[in-house]
Amino acid sequence: MNSALCIGLFTPLLGFLLLMVSSSVISRKSSGMIASSAILISLISFSTLLIRFISHEIASVDLTLFNWIPVNGINAAFNLHLDHIALWMTLIITGVGFFIHVYSIGYMDHDEDFVRFFAFMNFFVFSMLLLVLAGNLLLMFVGWEGVGLASYLLIGFWYDKPEAAPAATKAFVMNRIGDLGFLLGILLTLYTFGTGDIAELSNRVGNEFSSGSPVIMWITLLFFIGAVGKSAQLPLYTWLPDAMAGPTPVSALIHAATMVTAGVYLVVRMRYFYVLAPMTMNVVGIVGGLTSLFAAFCAMGQTDLKRVLAYSTVSQLGLMFLACGVGAFYSAMFHLTTHAFMKALLFLAAGNVVHMMSGRTEMAGMGGLAEKLKWTNWLFLIGVLAMSGVPPLAAFFSKDLILEVEEHSGQMTLFWVASLASVLTAFYLTRAYCLTFMGAPRAEKKLFDSIQEAPGVMIIPVSVLALLSIIGGFLGACFDCIPFLERFLNDIKLLASELKYTTHFMFTPDMILAVLGGLAGIGLALLIYMKSGDRFVNKWPFLKKSFYVDEVYDKLFVAPLKALSRLIGYVLEPYIVDGSLLGVMRLTQGTSRVLQVFQSGQIRSYVAWMVLGAVFLTFYFVFRG
Question: Do 128 and 94 touch, CB atoms closer than 8 A?
Fold first, then answer.
C-alpha cells in the first residue's frame, strides 16, 4: 500500500522533472504522452487503493518518509495520510486531470512551448496531490503554496499576451493575502496544541476545547481566510475571472480538479474544529451565500465565454461553503464532485470553440456554431443542463441536496439566496449557450467558413466528462438505498436531513421549486437570446464590470500602494537612504584627506608635530595646575 501511495503521489513530480530536464531534446508527441501517462499511472495507483478501501482491507494509510522539522512544539514529519476523504480527492484530481491532459495534446498542438506547458501541468497535479495527502498542516501548506506557484506559471504561460502577466501576478498576490491567514492559523494551532499533525489534532480538539472557544474560533477564522483566497470567495475573488488569460485547459484544471477546490477541502478536513466554532460556521455560510449570489449576477453581464464560466465557478464554490456553514460537509463534497465533472466539461467544450475560432473568446463574435460544431454543441448543452439542475443530471441531486439542507437547518435567508443563485445559474449558462451556438453567425464569413469540429483527441475526453455529468449525481444520491459516495465517505458524519434526502427520493416542495426555477431560468434565456445577440449587455454595464469591485480595489488599495512605492522609490530611497549613505561616505573621504596631510612620510614633519604636541601638553598642565 505504501508503494502505491508513493507511486500515485510522486509520478506527476517525476513527469515534471523529466520534461524540464529533457525539454530541449524531447519531441512534442513524446512530451504529451509522458505527461498524460504520469497522471494515468497516478490514477491507476489510487484506483488500486480504492479497491482495497471498498473491500475494507484497509481503513487508512499512514506513511512517514522522513523527519522534517524535529523541533519541540512543531515536530513536523514528511508524513502522508490517506483516508477516505483524501482518497476521493486524489481520484477527482487524477481522473479529471488525466482527461484534461489528453485534451491538451490537441489544444496545445500548435504552441511553441508544448513541453514547458505539460511540465507545469504535471507539477500542478503533484502540488494538489501533496496538499490533500499531507498528514500535517505544515506539509499541507507546502502543497498549498505549490498550487499557487503552478497557477502563476500556467496563468501567465502565454507571457507575450499583454493581459497574461498581470493576471498571473494578480492571482499570485491575492492568494498570498489568503495564505497569510492560513499560515497564521497554522502558527496559532502549533502554539495551542504543540503539533500540526492533522489526525492528532482531530482527536484532541473535541476533548480539550468546548464549543465556542475563542482560540478555536480564531484558528478556524484564519483557516477560512486561506480558503477564501484559494477558492475565490468574497472579497478575494477577483483573481479568478482574470485567470482566464491562460490556456483553456489550465482554466479547466484550476476550476474542476485543483486549486479552487483546496479551500473547500481545507474546511472539510478541519471539520472537527469548525463544529466547535458556531460563529465561524455562520461566517462561512454567509460568505458562501453572498458570493454565490454576487457571482451569479456578475456572470449575467459577461461577454467573454470563459469569464462566464469563471464566475459560475465562484458561484458554485459559494454553494459548497454555504453547505459547510450548516455542517453539511457531505453535501459540500458531493457538489464538489459533480461540479468537477460539469465544470471540466463546460470549459473543455468552450475550449473547442475557442480553439476552432483561433483564440476568440468574445461571444459577440460567435453565434450559429451549432451547425459547424455539432458534437461540441451537444456536449456544451449537456453541461449547461447538468449545471442548471435539470433532472436527472448531476447538479439536480447535489445542488438540490444543499437547498434541502439549508431549509431543514432553518437558514431560510440563505436558502432563498441559494435558490435565486440557482435560477440565475440556469439563466446565464443558457444565455452563454445561445450566444455561442444559436442564432445567426456573427463572425467574419472567412473565419466562420473555416471552422470545423475539434479532433478526436479533444472530443473523446469531453464526451467522457459529459457522461459523468449525466450519471454523476447517482454517486451521492439514491432512490431507495445508500449511495456509494455516502458509504465511502463514512468518516463524515451526515446530518439527519442529508441521510433523509440521499437515501430516499421524494418530491419535496424545495425540490419542485428548484427544478421549476431552473427551467424558468432556461426558458427565459431561450426567449431572450435564442435568435438574437446580446441586446441588454450595454444597458447593465455594472454587471459586466462586476459591480466595479476591481475599480474600487484600485482606488482603495492599488493606487495608494503605487503612490507609496513611488514615494519610496523616487524620494525616500534616493534622497534619504542613498543621500544619508552618500553623506557618510563624503564625510569619511574628507576626514581621510585631512588626516593624509599628517601622514607625509617625512621625519622632520613628524618631529615638528611631536614638538608642537609637547609644547601644547606643557602649557595645558601648567595652566591647569
Answer: no
For residue 597, the tally of other CB atoms under 10 A from its CB is 8
pLDDT score of 417:
96
What CA–CA distances, in Å, run from 197 to 6, 76, 92, 200?
Answer: 19, 7, 24, 5
Contacts of 263 (CB under 8 A, 6+ apart): 226, 227, 228, 229, 230, 231, 233, 317, 321
Instruction: Tell the residue number behind the cell numbers 481545507, with chain if given.
Output: 266
Whether this prediction's pTM lies above 0.90 is answered by yes
Least confident of 28-37, 531-540, 546-555: 531-540
- Among 375, 386, 397, 384, CA closest to 427: 384
Q: Among all chains, which residue has been given the C-alpha cell 614638538? A: 611
Q: What is the DSSP letter of 453?
A: P
Tell me the CA distances in angstroms from 35 to 287, 293, 340, 489, one per residue in order. 38, 38, 21, 30
pLDDT at position 625 is 62
Q: Which three cell numbers stand for residue 199?
A: 489526525
Q: DSSP secondary structure string, 495-531? A: -HHHHHHHHB----HHHHHHHHHHHHHHHHHHHHHSS
CB environment 374-398: b (16+ within 10 A), e (fewer): ebbbebbbbbbbbbbbbeebbbbbb
* Cα Rg of the chain (Å, integer): 30
DSSP letters spanning 428-441: HHHHHHHHHHSSS-
* 125 within 8 A of 258, measured Cβ to Cβ: yes
Cell readout for 496 is: 439527519
In the chain, the amino acid numbered 285 is G
Nine-digit cell string for 562: 503605487
Residues ≥6 apart with Cβ < 8 Å to 51: none
